[in-house]
């Protein structure tokens, strides 16, 4: 990609060794660009998508330049959630493995006494959530007098979670000669203000273009479904793909609970994660998932933000996300660190326009895919069974069963016996009782309207959208593609809005031309 090696970045031996142990081959773009600058002591604002290795970017710089003494902390890292604080902590421990370095995670939900004791024993790097950190500062158990490095990780998330005032209070309680590194996927105005007030004037901006790492490595597909078939579609997809580890997203906590229950009752190894669950519970679930003891994790956006699990092969949007950024966050859970991943979205006709907007905003291509038929699923399962049988035969570890087989041989045809055994295996492997071979595809999502107004009338797509929006009182998300021609135009609109648009806009005038509207032939 950029052919820069970790050895080129100016890092010391111990770190290079640790990086090697972690199996990183080459620095990601944000690492290659920010580490050398951070090593020179500059403040940095780093903007890059999730999954691009920002933790190691600041971790390397801090660990390289710090002289640890296990007394008062020299570095403070603020992260939005407990899960993220824990993950950052783990990564720093791995990076600092060859240094005499003590890293301490501090977050709410953990006994505060234990944190008091750990802080008293002396630490070099504290990683924590703003609320609990502030708590310790106020109680006097955390002293920031020696802080040389401050990291605001996932700053936009901290802002979204309402931590901005806590952060300001924390920053004010430390000395101003320090290096501040701020990382964020997006750069809203409040973050810029924060930087202006609390970072050095010569701070360096490093922005890595979207799509450079994660999204481009992720194959994105959508399935057009009827609302009533949502669950069956999910079962078909996962029965066919057999993901190693998949995260399935729902819009609401209730949605998570219901889906988990439905999946469990069909025998899938799955658990849910959302904000109503205790911290302990969520951590246990995440641990199980990380260790491969769960095939599926069903989560809300909030619960899954930033969680980093290696080897997630699939992200499935059971419900579409609320906004485009959530989509990027979600699918960033797969294809981590240059691995390939698959992202699926289930969309009803009604949701189709939202999907198109996501596609446009994220500059990605989301291909349509057909829901697997029952035949296709069975074929996959048959192949599995044949492979399992072959493997077992080749391992020759079935001597105990030979007498039983011989006994059956006297009574039955062995081909029948084998087929019966395979059916038993098969029944275990499929969850859903697929009564029809293929699901019906829903009627088209959009209606294509013909309007008797065109370029010669001096209209642009924008004036047209505004006209339709204002005249028919529909949202811009109900208006899709526009083909603007010289004398007329076609506008794709949401199925549930077209009648309203025809009623209200037909016969109206735009740029002094009276508009006639008809339903055009479907194109898609
Ligand atoms: P971000 O904070 O940008 O969302 P993380 O720092 O959590 O991303 O990194 C995502 C994953 O990529 C982690 O599992 C991390 O260990 C791994 N990773 C980071 N840098 C590299 C690299 N240079 N090569 C391979 N894997 C990496
Ligand atoms: Mg991060």
TrEMBL record:
Catalysed reactions, semicolon-separated: ATP + H2O = ADP + phosphate + H(+)
InterPro entries: DbpA/CsdA_RNA-bd_dom, DEAD/DEAH_box_helicase_dom, DEAD/DEAH_RhlB, DEAD_box_RNA_helicases, DeaD_dimer, Helicase_ATP-bd, Helicase_C-like, Nucleotide-bd_a/b_plait_sf
Domain of life of the native organism: Bacteria
GO CC annotations, alphabetized: cytosol; ribosome
Helicase C-terminal domain boundaries: 217-379
Motif, Q motif: chain positions: 4-32
Domain Helicase ATP-binding as annotated: residue spans: 35-205
CDD domains associated with the record: DEADc, RRM_DbpA, SF2_C_DEAD
EC number: 3.6.4.13
Keyword terms: ATP-binding, Cytoplasm, Helicase, Hydrolase, Nucleotide-binding, Stress response
GO MF annotation: an example: RNA helicase activity
SUPFAM superfamilies: P-loop containing nucleoside triphosphate hydrolases
Biological processes, Gene Ontology terms: response to cold
Family of this protein: Belongs to the DEAD box helicase family.
Protein name stated in the entry: ATP-dependent RNA helicase CshA
Organism: Clostridium cavendishii DSM 21758
């Amino acid at each position: 990609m950029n052919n820069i090696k970790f050895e080129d970045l100016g890092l010391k031996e111990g770190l290079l060794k640790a990086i090697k142990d972690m199996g990183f081959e080459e620095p990601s773009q944000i690492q290659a660009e920010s580490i050398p600058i951070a090593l020179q002591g500059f403040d940095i604002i780093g903007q890059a998508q999730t999954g691009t290795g920002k933790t190691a970017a600041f971790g390397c710089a801090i660990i390289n330049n710090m002289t640890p003494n296990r007394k008062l902390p020299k570095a403070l890292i603020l992260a939005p959630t407990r899960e993220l604080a824990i993950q950052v902590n783990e990564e720093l421990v791995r990076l600092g493995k060859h240094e005499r370095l003590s890293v301490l995670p501090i977050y709410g939900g953990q006994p505060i006494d234990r944190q008091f004791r750990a802080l008293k024993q002396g630490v070099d790097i504290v990683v924590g959530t703003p609320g609990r950190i502030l708590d310790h500062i106020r109680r006097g158990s955390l002293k920031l007098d020696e802080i040389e490095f401050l990291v605001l990780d996932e700053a936009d998330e901290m802002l979204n979670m309402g931590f901005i005032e806590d952060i300001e209070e924390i920053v004010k309680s430390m000395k101003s000669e320090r290096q501040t590194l701020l990382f964020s996927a997006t750069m809203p105005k409040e973050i810029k203000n924060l930087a202006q007030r609390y970072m050095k004037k010569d701070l360096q901006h490093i922005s890595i273009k979207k799509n450079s790492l994660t999204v481009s490595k992720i194959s994105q597909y959508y399935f057009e479904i009827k609302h009533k078939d949502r669950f069956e579609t999910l079962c078909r997809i996962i029965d066919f793909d057999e993901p190693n580890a998949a995260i399935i997203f729902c819009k609401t906590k209730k949605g998570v609970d219901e889906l988990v229950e439905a999946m469990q009752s069909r025998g899938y190894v799955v658990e849910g994660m959302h904000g109503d669950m205790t911290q302990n519970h969520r951590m246990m679930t995440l641990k199980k998932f990380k260790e491969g003891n769960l095939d599926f994790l069903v989560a809300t956006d909030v619960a899954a933000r930033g969680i980093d699990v290696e080897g997630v092969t699939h992200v499935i949007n059971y419900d579409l996300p609320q906004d485009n950024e959530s989509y990027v966050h979600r699918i960033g859970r797969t294809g981590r660190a240059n691995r390939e991943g698959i992202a699926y979205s289930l969309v009803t006709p009604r949701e189709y326009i939202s999907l198109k907007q996501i596609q446009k905003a994220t500059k990605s291509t989301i291909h349509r895919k057909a829901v697997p038929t029952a035949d296709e699923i069975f074929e996959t399962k048959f192949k599995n069974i044949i492979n399992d049988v072959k493997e077992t035969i080749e391992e020759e570890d079935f001597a105990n069963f030979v007498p039983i087989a011989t006994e059956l041989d006297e009574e039955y045809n062995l081909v029948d016996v084998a087929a019966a055994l395979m059916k038993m295996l098969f029944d275990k492997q499929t969850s859903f009782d697929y009564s029809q071979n293929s699901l019906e595809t829903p009627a088209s999502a959009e209606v294509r309207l013909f309007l008797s107004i065109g370029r010669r009338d001096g209209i642009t797509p924008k004036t047209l959208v505004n006209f339709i929006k204002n005249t028919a009182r529909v949202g811009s998300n109900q208006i899709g593609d526009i083909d603007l021609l010289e004398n007329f135009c076609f506008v794709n609109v949401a199925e549930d809005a077209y009648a309203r648009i025809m009623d209200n806009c037909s016969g109206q005038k735009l740029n002094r031309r009276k508009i006639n509207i008809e339903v055009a032939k479907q194109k898609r």
